[in-house]
Amino acid sequence: LAEGSPYPLDEKEARIVENLRSEDGKALTFTEVGDLLSVASFHKVIKSLMQKDIIFLFEQMSDKYSPKVLKKVRLAHQFVGSTSTVEQLFEQLASKPKQLDVLLKYLQRVPVHHNEHLNHAGLEKAALTSSPHLSPSAVNTLIKNGILEQFDQIVSRFPLDENPLAQMPFQLNEAQLTAHDEVMAQFEEKNIVLLHGVTGSGKTEIYIDLIRKALEGGGQVLYLLPEIALTAQIVTRLIRVFGSRLGVYHSKFSDNERVEVWNGVLSGRFQVVVGVRSAVFLPFDNLSLLIVDEEHESSYKQYDPAPRYNAREVALMIGNFQGAKVLLGSATPAVETYYQARLGRYGLVTLSK
Length: 353
What we know:
Blueprint: H1 11-21, H2 30-37, H3 43-51, E1 68-75, H4 83-92, H5 97-109, H6 118-121, E2 123-124, H7 125-129, H8 136-144, E3 148-155, H9 174-189, E4 192-197, H10 203-216, E5 220-224, H11 232-242, E6 246-249, H12 255-267, E7 272-275, E8 287-293, E9 301-302, E10 309-310, H13 311-322, E11 325-330, H14 335-343, E12 347-351
Parallel strand pairs: 4-11, 4-12, 5-7, 5-8, 6-7, 8-11
Antiparallel strand pairs: 1-2, 1-3, 9-10
Helix pairs in contact: 9-10
């Protein structure tokens, strides 16, 4: 500031202003201000500068998502398509056995002499560098000398996206088929149905068949489970039926994995999502069926941190907003749910065997 300014600055304020002036358009985060002043509490300094109209605060969203990237290698294009060029390459590397071993390993894994188009996909670099019989420095030397090319490939964190599995057929037994038909009949009249089935009665098989029918109609499906029930066993079972159309949303997932599921729902890649309570906030826009299994479970309620909500009640509201059917399943329904079913506001189907 100019000499004799009506807003004199103390030492800490001057240090912040000087840092902001050092580069045009530069901004400081609160963390950077703390590091600059070497103090933990600096909010009074920020407030003073704002009152003097010297600085202003603003918020900026930052994208923390980072895609999964594989480092891959492939044979340089000038060595592909001609047997003679590969032979010359062997002669060139004859006195360099470690590099020759790497090249032979690559050609063994990627037989470009049979199909040169295989070279475009290349091979994971780790397949060569992590081999105990190959030298990582030899791999890097081949890349440096232009014999191998290194490139990055963005891949899904859910490999089943690239490997859809065939559907696994199964037949409902007589009791399950009767309950299934009753649920479908109730859905004709009511948007919410309670499936009251004893433990081990086979509610999951009914859910799977209802999900199939919803997908055949072109809709999306959300299948909610309590965290304790979302096991590898149930996920594997659903994957066998729905393959790459199934997304899994779990609280144990990393932020990057959750973003991939979120984007998968947005793009239509995941038509079915099985998840815990927070899955209700995924960006569905064409839900035709919501299933809340073990609807009586207290783990559907989030008390801390905010937002505080009951995922079952949120599912009911989403179903109302999107015109979707909601199926509540339990062997011991919540009192309020069973009361609504007995009053006739919800449909009620009993599976006792």
